[in-house]
Amino acid sequence: MKKRKSSPKLYYKPLIGLAVFIIVSILLLAFVYKTARSMDFFTVRETIVRESFESKDSVSNSPLDQVIDKTIDISYLKGKNLFAVDLDKEENYLSVIYPGYKKIRLIRVLPNRVFADFIRRKPVAYVKLYRNFSVDDEGVLFSLAENVAEPDLPAICGLETKIFGPKSGRKYNTKDLNTAVAIIKLIKANKVLKNLKITRVDVSSPANTVIFVSVPQKVFDINKSQAGKQNSIEIKIGQDYLIDKINILGSLFSQINSDWAKIKYVDLRFKEPVIKIETQDKK
């Protein structure tokens, strides 16, 4: 006896019902969204701004990190419908107005508020051009805070003829600037050198790129005979094999210890590092 075949209609009915449900849901959501865009209940009445860093590790004692930008203003969003505000468009607009921030996020807060999170750029140094600019680890220049003339950060020199018409918020992908930023980041990432104070990176002559670092005061406290000596060491590094050279520098400094105060310069441009030691005049 032949089995009776199931009718195809039995399979189609659930699918048709599901399709109808989806269509009705979409139409209903569209109606609710359109209605919400015209309701006074969802008119933006308050804007909230918060400044933050990407991570806790970004916070330092630099004067730049203590300055809060009081000029941030997104009150122009008040009076607009909360759902009519194009968040992506507004974020891009604010990024142009406030280039000192790495990322800006806008969030709708029902029923009538907009929350803005301004994530600040972390300055790793400042660049001496026709005026001083901060620079972050991506090579983006941005303006210093008005009340900070000479921040307690490394100065990058020698770019005056290599960056023309610098503008805040623009990334300058020049080899010399990238080299200077890379050197600073590598030193800060080195276990031995991370607390070393970099005062200046000079890239005016790329092949002879020089770093100037301060000798820790505790070294002078240990080595009383060096009192009065300028507490700065010149490190000639060039622009190639930076990772290897920074590792070599860390190894050298871990062996030198309190004799840092006697060093005039370290030259890492050649196969074998050269250390110049200042000798005291014999009386």
Q: Based on the structure given, which CATH architecture of the largest domain is correct?
A: 3-Layer(aba) Sandwich
Mean pLDDT: 80
**Outline:** elongated
Q: What would the CATH topology of the largest domain be? A: Rossmann fold
- Report the β-strand fraction as a percent range: 15-25%
Radius of gyration: 30 Å
Overall number of domains: 2
Give the low-confidence spans: 56-61, 63-68, 219-224
Which H/E pattern describes the elements?
A: HEHEEEEEEHEEHEHEE
Largest sheet: 9 strands, mixed
Please give the structural blueprint.
Elements: H1 9-38, E1 46-52, H2 87-97, E2 101-109, E3 113-120, E4 125-128, E5 132-135, E6 141-143, E7 155-157, H3 175-189, E8 197-202, E9 210-214, H4 217-222, E10 232-236, H5 242-256, E11 263-267, E12 274-277
Parallel strand pairs: 1-3, 4-7, 7-8, 10-11
Antiparallel strand pairs: 2-3, 4-5, 5-6, 8-9, 9-10, 11-12
Helix pairs in contact: 3-5
Structure description:
This protein has 283 residues and is of the alpha/beta class. The chain folds into 2 domains: 41-120; 125-277, 3-Layer(aba) Sandwich (Rossmann fold). It is 27% helix and 22% strand. The protein contains 5 helices and 12 strands. The strands form 2 sheets. A 9-stranded mixed beta sheet has the order 6-5-4-7-8-9-10-11-12, with helices on one face. Strands 1-3-2 form a 3-stranded mixed beta sheet, with helices on one face. A hairpin with a 5-residue loop joins strand 5 and strand 6. The radius of gyration is 30 Å and the shape is elongated.
